[in-house]
Structure formats: structure tokens, C-alpha cells
Write a structure and sequence with these properties.
By secondary structure, this protein is of the alpha+beta class. It is built from 9 helices and 10 strands. A hairpin with a 2-residue loop joins β8 and β9. The protein is elongated and about 75 Å long.
Length: 299
Amino acid sequence: MRQLKLNADAVSEYVTRRFAITRDDTACTARTEGDADIRTRGERPYAVLTLAYTCPAGAAGPVTISSAPFLDAESFVHSTKTIVHYDVDGQRGSQILTLAEPSVAVAAGDGQKPHQARQFFLLGTEHLLFGLDHILFLLSLLIGARGLRDIVLTATTFTAAHSITFLLAACGVVDVPAAVVEPVIAASVVVAVAGFVLRDRTDNARWRLPTVFTFGLVHGLGFAGTLGIDESWSWELLLSLLSFNIGIEAVQLGIIAVVFPLLLLLRRSPFHRWALPTLTVPIVVVSLYWLWDRVTVSA
């Protein structure tokens, strides 16, 4: 906080230079309101800077919002995405700004645009594709499934659970520290593999779906934490979140459609007794490393 106060002018200058608003192709003048602040969400600190923009008198045309912070060339972070929630002349919506699409123009009567929902859908697909811990949990459930009915019940349970907490956490209703969420997600992979290893020794039918539901709730918190939205409730926000969640489900269904038939073929092969357990070895090793790493980092 002390460093932020000492460098408040530099931070303000950097942000106002990289985040611009124009109306009728004329730049609006930015000014900071109050002091910069440090807030936390899920134990993740972030800086809050409030800017007020004054647009030219009489301007009533489209408003263009542009964002270009943390360019790749600056080597701070890479592939930055800025989520903008706007309310312009009664037109509300959300937009993801990237290096490829760094601005959004809003005019009266626009409303929420279809491509905005598409952006959040694609962001959801990207998140799951690069979320290896979520993928390994899903693969562990597939390896432990006994048939198509089991897969349908398991996938439905997992989807329902993570959708609940994702929406609640993204809207700010629930806030669980990442120091709790991330280790539990890693542990969920180990438990899912254990369910497969012990399925013939114990009656796991009773606890399988409740366990999947419980861990699904935690995975939903992880999805919301990664998205990092800090916005009050609105129907436009809900549409964006649902689009993001549908993107996650699309990738999840794609993984099931590809992997489960392959596992069925493997189960019918003469070497299935050792092949399936062998598949779980790298999954357990990676998830145990994650668990150790996340617990020690949080400590």
C-alpha cells in the first residue's frame, strides 16, 4: 500500500494513458477520484483506481472505450484481457478487450451484442482447455466410470455443482480464499483417482456422486477466481457469466466425447487390468505435486 501511495501519480498517468474513452471521436478527459486503494478478493490483492471522464459538451454520439494496459512488449504479463462492464445512455453490457480487439463502441439502442456473449463463451473454453487441474479431475472421473449412465450422472452432478458456486462467487455472494480453494482442487484429483483404485474393494456408489458434487462446488470457486470479475449484479453480467460457463461445458462435453469411447475400447482389451491403473500414475504424481506446492505457498 505504501508503494502504491508513493507512486500514485505514475500509476494514474499509466492507466489514463492506456485506458481511454472517446465520444464523437473526441477524447474525454480523465481525472482520478480519491486515492488508489488495495483490496483483496480470495486473498489476491489488486489495486483499485477510480477514474472519472468528462466528455465534450453536447456530444451525444457513440462512446468508444479502449484499453491497452500491460502490452506483451513491456514483459509485465502476457495476453492481458480487460473485462469492461458499461452503462452508457441506458445501454448496458460487457465486453472483453484484448490486443486483437482493444476497443468497443457503444451507441444508443445497441444493447447487449451477440458477439459479447461469444467472447465470454470463448473465454470459458480457453479457461478449461488451459486448466490442467480441472481436466485431470474430469479424466479421473472418466477412468473410474463404469458405463455411460455413470458418466451422465457424474458429468451432470459436476456441472450442477460448479455452476452454482461459479455464479455465486463471480457475483460476489460467496468469497472463499484461493489459499483454500486451490489445494482442495488438487486434492480432488487424488480422491477421484482413489475412487477408481478402490472401486472394487468398497461400495463407492453411495459416496461417489456426493463427493463429485462437493468437489464440483470447489472447482466452481476456482473458475470464478480465475475470471476475476468485480462487478455488481446485473442481467448483463449474468448473461456474460452464463456464456462463460457454457464455454466450460462445451469443452467438458468435448473431452467426454473423445476420451470415454477410447476408455471403453481400452477396457475391452486384454491388457486393461494394468493399462487403466497405469494411466492414473502420472495423474496422481502431478496432483500430489500441486497439492504440496499449493499448501506450502499458502502457508
